[in-house]
Amino acid sequence: MILGCIADDFTGATDLANTLTRRGMHTVQTIGIPKGAAPQADAVVVALKSRTIPVADAVTQSVAACRWLKANGARQIFFKYCSTFDSTDAGNIGPVADALLDELGSGFTIACPAFPENGRTIYLGHLFVGGDLLSDSSMKNHPLTPMRDANLVRVLGRQSKHKVGLVPYRTVKQGAPAIAEAYAALQAEGIRHAIVDALEDRDLEHIGAASSALPLITGGSGVAVGLPQNYRTARLIPKREGASPLDKVGGPGVVLSGSCSAATLGQVERFAAKHPSQAIDPQGLASDPEKTVAALLAWATEQLKKGPALIYASAPPEKVAAVQAAFGREKAGAMIEHAIARLASALAAERVRRFVIAGGETSGAVVSALKVEALEIGPQIAPGVPACLSYGNPRYALALKSGNFGGPDFFVEALEALP
Asked: Are 19 and 60 in contact (CB under 8 A)?
C-alpha cells in the first residue's frame, strides 16, 4: 500500500476509488476497517459512515482508520469528504482533519473539495456548484448538512481549532512550485489548514504535485487526480491503464434511493416515467414498519420478474421538512435508512444481486446490510460513480451514487452498466 484513504461516507469512497483507478492505481475499497490482512493494492480506501455522526465518534473512527492504514504501509494519508463540503459548524471535517494532523505529527495540510468535472470549483476560497455559489445551490436546503456559507475559509475556520488560510487562484495557475512555496509561507505564519483554489483538472494536477510531501491531504476526489503521477515519478507504481471489466453477475436490478438532492429527484422522476416505481411512506413506517416493509418487498419481488424497479424515499425539501417536523430529524433519517437496508437484505435473499443505490447514508446502510466487506472498482458509469463488484460470496454488482452526481438518466445507465 502506498496511499491510505479515509472516506466519510460510502459513495465518497467509491468516488475517490474511481478517480485513483482511472489514473492507474490498483485501488480497493473496504467497508470499514478490515479485520484481517490488508488488501493487496496500491491504494486502499476505508469507507466510514462518519459524515453526520457525533464529532467525537467521527474523530475516533477516523484516527483508528489512519492507524490501521499506517500500520499496513501507507506512505501518505488522504481524508476524503464531499465536493460540496457537507458539514455543520460543529464538524465533522475540521475536527477530523485536526485529529489526523496530530496523529501524523504534521504541521500543515490542505482542504480542496474541487471537482471541476462535476461542476465544483473554488475561487478566492468560495465554493461554486455549477455557476452558483454553494450557498445559492440546492445544498442550502440539505436535510442534514445545509450549506449556507460558500466561503470555505470561514466554514472550516468555525470547525477547526487551528488557523485557516488560502492559496488563491493567482498562485495555483503558476504551477506546482508556486503552490509549494505558498504552503511553506502559510505554515510559517502558523496556519495549519489551507483552502486551495481550483477551476479545472490541470489545477488539481498542479496541486497534487505540490502536495507530494504532505503526510496528510484532505479534499474531494478531484484533488487526487495528481497523486498517481507522484508515485509513478517516484517509481512506486508502474504505468497502468484504468479499470478492467468486472466479472458478470446478471439477474434483476433494483434501484434504492434515499437521497433528496435535486439531481436525484430529477433521476427519480425520469426513471418513474417509464419503469415501475414505489415511494416509501414515512407515516406507514412510523405506525407499522413491519407491514410497510413487507408490502414494499412483495411489490418489488413481483415487479423484478418483469424488469428493473425503483423504491425511493427521495422527496423535495418541503416534504422532507414536514417528515422531520413530525418525527425528528435523526429519527426520520434512521427510519428510512433502516427500511431500505431491510429491503436490500430481503431482496438479496430472493437472489437479487444488482443494486443501484442513491445517497451516501443510504449506500452505507445497504452495503452494511448486504455484509459487503470490500469492493473491486470497475469502469466509470458517470463522473464520480464507478461500477463496483463486492468480494466474497455472493458477489453483488453495485453502483453507489452520491446524491448530486449523475445525469437525468443515471439510474437506467447504471443498471445497463452493472455486470
From this structure: no
pLDDT in tens, 297-316: 999 999 999 999 999 999 99
| Domain boundary assignment for the chain | 3-233, 253-417
Query: How far, in Å, CA of 261 to CA of 283, rounded?
Result: 21
Q: Are 105 and 229 in contact (CB under 8 A)?
A: no
**Closest to 197 (Cα-Cα) out of 151, 248, 135, 259:** 151
Left if phi > 0, otherwise alpha if psi is -120 to 50, otherwise beta: which for 125? left
* Residue 204 near residue 83 (C-beta atoms within 8 A): no
Distance CA 85, CA 93 (A): 8
Cβ–Cβ < 8 Å for 128, 85: no
Collapsing DSSP to helix, strand or coil, 354 comes out as strand
Nearest to 219 by CA among 112, 305, 109: 112
Q: 186 and 194 in contact (C-beta within 8 Å)? A: yes
Residues in the chain: 419
Residue-wise pLDDT for 233-247, tens only, equals 999 999 988 888 999
CATH of 253-417, one of 3.20.20.210, 3.90.1150.10, 3.40.980.20, 3.40.47.10: 3.40.980.20
Cα radius of gyration rounded to whole Å, the chain: 21
3-233 is a CATH 3.40.50.10840 domain: yes
Q: pLDDT digit string (tens) for 19-38?
A: 999 999 999 999 999 988 88
The model carries a pTM of 0.91
Pairing between β-strand 126-129 and β-strand 120-123 as defined by DSSP bridges: antiparallel
d(CA 252, CA 348): 11
Q: What pLDDT sits at residue 159?
A: 98
- Measured CA distances, 118 to 15, 172, 193 (Å): 11, 20, 24
Rounded CA-CA distance 247/418 in Å is 10
